[in-house]
Specification:
Elements: E1 4-9, H1 16-30, E2 36-41, H2 44-54, E3 59-63, H3 80-85, E4 88-93, H4 96-101, H5 106-119, E5 122-127, H6 131-135, H7 139-150, H8 156-159, E6 163-166, H9 180-197, H10 200-205, E7 208-211, H11 216-223, E8 230-233, H12 240-250
Parallel strand pairs: 1-2, 1-8, 2-3, 3-4, 4-5, 5-6, 6-7, 7-8
Helix pairs in contact: 1-2, 1-12, 5-7, 7-9, 11-12
The structure holds phosphoenolpyruvate.
Length: about 250
């Protein structure tokens, strides 16, 4: 039985003080949850303010991106070690907004996945097709490219340490959610790709989150599907009660 994981991607929202206030609200709402991994991913500038507020709680800290190099002349970037020493355990990699607006490629994302694993961070690798690609019948081709490209060169054991987030781009921030059946079909496909690049035992252990307008009203039905092991939540993660309700739907 895979342990579900619900992560909040706060994107470029919340100052350090606002972020600390949000986790302050969230803490008591999820304190009784013991069988779900709960993760918040504030912007870099709020990590140091949020980390102490999470000590001794069941909420873990994640970041939204990182560079693959350990240090050096990479203005504006942060390394895995910087995140780790601030208390991060997770890092979102290859989010569609990074692919779209910052032109991140599968090969760069692959370097980040490897660097995160080497440092001891759990990558949350985001994959997913655009509306155009779906309408063109390209969903499986694109998703397979994202999964195999992002995980290229990983040993089966390393594949087992990654969390995948299936995020159809057309469902992100649009209010349009993939139906549970649409999402399940792609999740099952991803698990099959994982089987091909590792083995069946490992593929069965990898958590695959759904992301794209997940909210309290649809979370239970989505996570009720056999291959949907949690959620990566954008908009609804910015309100403590909504995010907590999604966490509760995963219990
Ligand atoms: C996301 O960007 O990871 C996301 C799932 O956003 P939203 O929930 O707002 O669609």
């Amino acid at each position: 039985m895979r342990r579900r994981i619900v992560a909040g991607n706060w994107k470029m929202n919340k100052t350090a003080a606002e972020a600390a206030a949000l986790v302050g609200e969230l803490r008591p709402l999820v304190s009784d949850v013991s069988n779900v991994d709960v993760v918040v991913c504030p912007p870099f500038t709020a990590l140091a303010a949020v980390a102490p507020a999470l000590v001794g709680t069941n909420i873990e800290l994640g970041a939204q991106n990182m560079h693959w190099e350990k240090s050096g002349a990479y203005t504006g970037e942060v390394s895995a070690e910087m995140l780790l020493t601030l208390g991060c355990r997770y890092v979102i990699l290859g989010h569609s907004e990074r692919r779209q607006y910052f032109h991140e490629t599968n090969s760069e994302i692959n370097k980040k996945v490897k660097a995160a694993l080497a440092a001891g961070l759990t990558p949350i690798l985001c994959v997913g097709e655009t509306l155009e690609e779906r309408e063109d019948g390209q969903t499986e081709t694109i998703v397979k490219e994202h999964v195999t490209g992002g995980l290229l060169g990983l040993s089966p054991d390393q594949v087992g340490k990654v969390v995948i987030a299936y995020e159809p781009v057309w469902a992100i921030g649009t209010g349009k959610t993939a139906t549970p059946d649409q999402a399940q079909a792609v999740h099952a496909f991803i698990r099959n790709v994982l089987k091909q690049i590792s083995n069946s035992t490992i593929a069965e252990t990898v958590r695959i989150q759904y992301g794209g307008s997940m909210k309290p009203e649809n979370a239970k039905e989505l996570m009720g599907k056999p291959d949907i092991d949690g959620g990566l939540i954008g908009g609804a993660a910015l309100k403590a009660d909504s995010f907590a309700a999604i966490v509760k739907a995963a219990v």
